[in-house]
Amino acid sequence: MKHMNSEVKEERTSNKKRIDLFLVPIVLIAAFLNLFKIWTDEYANAYYTAAVKSMLQSFHNFFYASFDPGGYVTIDKPPVVFWIQTISAKIFGFYGWSVILPQALAGIGSVLLLYVLVKRTFGVWAGRFAALAMALTPIVPAVSRTNNIDSMLVFTLLVATWMLFRAVRTAKFGWVLAAFAMIGVAFNMKMLQAYMVLPAFYVFYVVATKITWKKKIAFLTTATALMLAVSVSWAVVVDSTSADKRPYMGSSQTNSVLELAFGYNGINRLTGNTSVTGSGHKQPAQTEQQTASSETKQTSNSSADSSQSSNQRKSSSSQKMQAPGGGNQNGMFNTGNPGPFRLFQKGLSDQISWLLPFVIFSIVGLFAGVKFKGPYTTKQKESLFWLAWLLPVAVFFSIAGFFHQYYLIMLAPPIAAFAGAGAVALWSMYKQHNGWKSWLLPGGILTTAALQVYIMSPYVSSIGVAPIAGVGALGVILALVLAVRKQRKNSLTNYLGAAAMVVLLAMPAYWAMTPIIYGGNSMLPSAGPDSSSGMGGPPSTATNSKQSSFNGMQPPGSSSGNSSSNNQMQPPSGSSNGGQMPGGSSNNGQMQPPSGSSNNSQMPNSSSSKSSSSKRKSGGMNAEVNQKLLNYLTKNNTGEKYLFATTDSTSAAPYIIKTGKPVMAMGGFSGSDPILTVSKLKAMIKKGEVKYFYLSGMGKGGQSDVITWIKDNSKEIPSSKWQSTSSSAQQGPSGNGTLYEITLK
Fold first, then answer.
1. Cβ-contact 186, 151 below 8 angstroms
2. 13, 88, 132, 311: which has the highest count of C-beta atoms within 10 A?
3. Whether the Cβ atoms of residue 620 and residue 299 lie closer than 8 Å to each other
């Protein structure tokens, strides 16, 4: 107990010291990677941005995280992160950057937290290197620059880790409760993904706390009960509410949050059965893959000077995508094929695995000489925590049937922690000539450089031979020189060790900058020279920017050839521009702050002026609006609740963002949710709630009967009345689309 009290006093004393000056540039690097140019992304992930627009309009929409202002269906995730995004939009105005900002700040916060967590036990240089490794892990800024959930999730889990470490140091039960309650909060961000860290929490608390087994079991049982209560609190409230008084729970098949948590967002991610028909028969994950691929094809050309990067972007539509286990080595969404070396395959390795060999050598060094029965040092206990975080998560991603590349951010904290702690530990062993352990440092440098050459080799046409050869040559030379100079102690050896660390971080740093250099994809974020495609594979040789934007697929009714060509960054403006998004100088093309009238909050349409052409409208969806269609629907609305109805969220999102008016995504996100029946739709039409329907192809799952009925009982609206004249075919998420009108008495 005296030892614990002395640690607490030491912590308080250290907190009073001046700011670590070496940490300042690391934080600035993280801030640059996470924040720079986020103001050019007007739509972000349009699916989630539309939800924020809806949540701003009423507490009912806010509480349930409704996708549309009419409260028809929710988004496919719990609400906590979107509550934060909505609050941010309320404070700063409804802009693309204001919904991204919380995640960007969370990415920076994670770097700081990792520094604090590692520094205390492993030393200040370990903390610095861990923080830098976290900041430069490519997938971290790639995700943090979007309004996807994962950056905030990781930050929350690191806050829980800080609480757990404090609980062990102070022996206070309250901190244990707080740590596990924070995991419950994280569950309400992305459900079961938050529980991936539980093995680390349980193992560490059991091993590190110096209390009786009886107390350990009692404390952990109580903390787990609290975690579960916090986890299901929102779900219980929602599932207990009558279905006719709340939106349908999006992407569930039974209108249940718990089914969503343990099905679509849970076990099905492991098995790959993430798509379910309305009749309840499971289909392979490839169905959802095709849906998301179609949605991603709506991405318009990204920011970051397309004239320079068009030759370096990949046309994802040209890649064959098969479910894991199929013949394509890149696997579904370029996540590789299941197996023990999956994290070293294309599509995953360049997102997260740059330092994995060094981490493996670090783990060997940190656990060298450890006996199973102990006693364990503080360093060994915390190393065990990070190992218990790393291994289960790595195993999951090695065998899971369906996930996206940006989920790999879950691996970033333990990898960065081991990189920092291991760098100091291996350097100490090297300088002390500690037998075989002294060879771990040059061995780690050599194998890590070799892996980095392997990771970069598919991108030789984009980045050239020089950086690949440079990393390989310098890695080999520095490793060999360090091996030869093992018996010498002088400043030159210190410089060589520092140079080796710089070499190992050089290419991850470049990869982390690629979303800024080449543009990012807000729906399927990834890093690399093809980051704008969001598919994370090696680039093609396509020279046409429209080819690298999925063959020029256009949103409903929009004209072709309207992609941005001028992507020069414009700094935030403090001028009297009416609270516009930074970087703009006119109202055209700007997202306006919410007001009492939903029509006042607008975003650019397909005919945006050149002044707004520097804005990215990727959004991963149809991030454009056909103004002629919108004008027709608005003019002919005779009091209907919904502006129009469509099969899924892809077509609906940009119209919700632009107008703030309800647009019905009849089948939810992918169009396969069994929300609507023919009888329900008839009743809605008779009540005057909806009369226009935009359809592009047959409905999925339980919506096919509804789509068939609409086509059989409607009047087709001539395309000349609502379709852009410069486009010969209406392009929707699944092909040519048609506008229908139904009125029933």
1. no
2. 132
3. yes
Give the tens place of pLDDT for each residue, 484-500. 877 666 678 888 889 99
Can you tell me which residue has the tokens 């992304």?
Answer: 41
Closest C-alpha to 168, from 203, 198, 199, 126: 203
CA gyration radius, the chain: 26
Between strands 664-665 and 645-646, the pairing is parallel
What tens digit of pLDDT does each residue of 696-717 get? 865 565 678 999 999 999 999 9
Lowest mean pLDDT among 115-124, 282-291, 456-465, 517-526: 282-291
Q: Could you tell me which of 445, 435, 417, 422 has the C-alpha nearest to residue 362? A: 422
Q: How far apart are CA 488 and CA 32, in angstroms?
A: 39
Predicted local confidence at residue 736, as pLDDT: 65
671: left (phi over 0), alpha (psi -120 to 50) or beta: left
Contact 584, 611 (CB under 8 A): yes
pLDDT tens column, 328-361: 456 677 888 999 999 999 999 999 999 999 999 9
Helix (H, G, I), strand (E, B) or coil at 298: coil
Task: Quote the tokens at residue 580.
Answer: 């516009």
Tokens of 439: 């060879």
Q: What is the largest CA-CA distance in the chain?
A: 93
DSSP-assigned states of every residue in 517-541? HT---SSS---STTGGGTS-S----
Report in angstroms the alpha-carbon separations of 131 from 108, 251, 438, 579, 736. 10, 37, 25, 35, 49
Residue 39 contacts residue 573 (beta carbons within 8 Å): no
Which of residues 611 and 404 earns the better pLDDT score?
Answer: 404
Q: Which residues does 472 contact at the CB level (< 8 Å), separation at least 6?
A: 449, 450, 452, 453
- Paired tokens of 685: 């039409």
Cα within 13 Å of Cα(230), Cβ side = 22
Q: CA–CA separation, 509 vs 197, rounded Å?
A: 27
pTM: 0.83
Angle subtended at Cα 240 by Cα 236 and Cα 242, rounded to the nearest 5 degrees: 145
Q: Which two tokens stand for residue 311?
A: 């030759």
Residue 652 burial (C-beta neighbours within 10 Å; 0-12, 13-18, 19+): buried
Rounded-to-integer distance, Cα 209 and Cα 219, Å: 11
Residue-wise over 232-241: b if at least 16 C-beta within 10 A, else e? bebbeebbee
Question: Which pLDDT tens digit goes with each residue over 601-610?
Answer: 333 333 333 3
